[in-house]
Amino acid sequence: MSAAGGTGTTRLDVHFTNSDARADLRADVARGLTAVPKELPPKWFYDARGSELFERITDLPEYYPFRTERALLADSVADIARSSGADTVVELGSGSSTKTRLLLDAFLAAGTLRRYVPQDVSESALQGAIEELHREYPDLTLHGVVGDFTTDLARLPGADPGGRRMIAFLGGTIGNLLPGPRHAFLTHVREILAPGEQLLLGTGLVTDPAVMVPAYDDADGITADFNRNVLRVLNRELGADFDVAAFDHVAHWDPANSWIEMRLRAARDLRVRVAELDLEVAFDAGEELVTEVSAKFRPEAIDEFATAAGFTTTRRWTDPDERFALSLLTAG
C-alpha cells in the first residue's frame, strides 16, 4: 500500500510466528536448564515487562552503551551514509528507536536511499513501526521482515537490480553471541551479501571495568529486576514455579574472555518444576544460572573476526572515550 501523496509502498513478510517463538522457548529452556552450567538466552528477558525495564535501563546514569552509541551514530551517520552509498538499508532487531531515524535521515540526505528493511521477531511491534515510519517517510519503500536474525537472514529481500544493501546490526548485540555462534552468524551475513555490500556493526569496546560493570549492575536495582524477569517469563509461559526472590543478580567481568556475564545466583537450595516440560531442576545454594554474555572488543579483535567471516574493515568510528565503535565492513 502507499500513503496519500506519497510514492513509497509498505510490505510485511512473516517468517516467525508466536508458535515458533513458543517452540524456541521450550527448546531453549529444556536445553539450558539441563546444561552445565545452567544457562538461558537473553532474548527471553523481553516480554512487555522486560522491554519496559530495559527502556528504564537505557536512561540510567550507569548505562553508558545506549547513549554512547546513539551519540556516536548522530555524529557519524552522515559520513557513514556517504561511505556506504547503499540504496537499501536493512536493520536487524530494528525495534523503533531513534537510531532508525538517524540512519534514514542521513541516507536520504545523501540521495541514495530507496528502501528500508526493518527486521524483528515481534510482528505487532514491526507492524506498528512500519505504519509510523510510513507516515513520516511517505516516499520511502518499507519492507518489514518478521524473523529471527540468527536463522532467517536468507529470507531478507535482495538489492534491486544495480543497487546494493547495507545491513545495520547495532546496539552491541553481536556481543551477546559466544565466539562460535558469532562466527557462524557473521559468516551467514557474508553469504547473503553480494561482494561490495556492507555490514554496519555496533560493538562495545573494552574499557575500565569500573565503568563497564555498573552498567550491568546499577545502584537502583533495575538491571537486577530485568535479569530476574526471565524467571517470571518461565513461570507464566511454561508453568514453572521459580521463587523469583530467591535468586540474586550477579554481574561479573571476565577479563580472559573480555565479556560481562550476567547471572542469577540461587540464595538457597531449590527445586524447580517446569510443568509444561515435565522437568524438575535442582539448584544448590550459590549455584549460578548464566542469563547473558555481553562481550566487549578491542579494534584489532573486530578486524580479526570480520576478516575470518569474509569482510574487510572499510571505516571505523569511535566515541571520544573509546567505549563504543561503529565499523563499516565490506563483503569481499
What's the helix and strand layout?
Elements: E1 10-14, H1 18-32, H2 48-58, H3 64-84, E2 88-92, H4 98-109, E3 115-120, H5 123-136, E4 141-146, E5 165-169, H6 179-192, E6 198-204, H7 209-212, H8 222-238, E7 247-254, E8 259-266, E9 270-274, E10 279-283, E11 288-295, H9 299-308, E12 311-318, E13 324-331
Parallel strand pairs: 1-4, 2-3, 2-5, 3-4, 5-6
Antiparallel strand pairs: 6-13, 7-8, 8-11, 9-10, 12-13
Helix pairs in contact: 2-8, 3-4
Care to describe what's here?
This protein is α/β, with parallel strands linked by helices and 332 residues long. The protein has one domain (9-332): Rossmann fold. Helix content is 36%, strand content 25%. It has helices at 18-32, 48-58, 64-84, 98-109, 123-136, 179-192, 209-212, 222-238, 299-308, and strands at 10-14, 88-92, 115-120, 141-146, 165-169, 198-204, 247-254, 259-266, 270-274, 279-283, 288-295, 311-318, 324-331. The strands form 3 sheets. Strands 1-4-3-2-5-6-13-12 form an 8-stranded mixed sheet, sandwiched between helices. The chain has a 3-stranded antiparallel sheet with strand order 7-8-11, with helices on one face. The longest helix has 21 residues, at 64-84. The radius of gyration is 20 Å and the shape is globular.
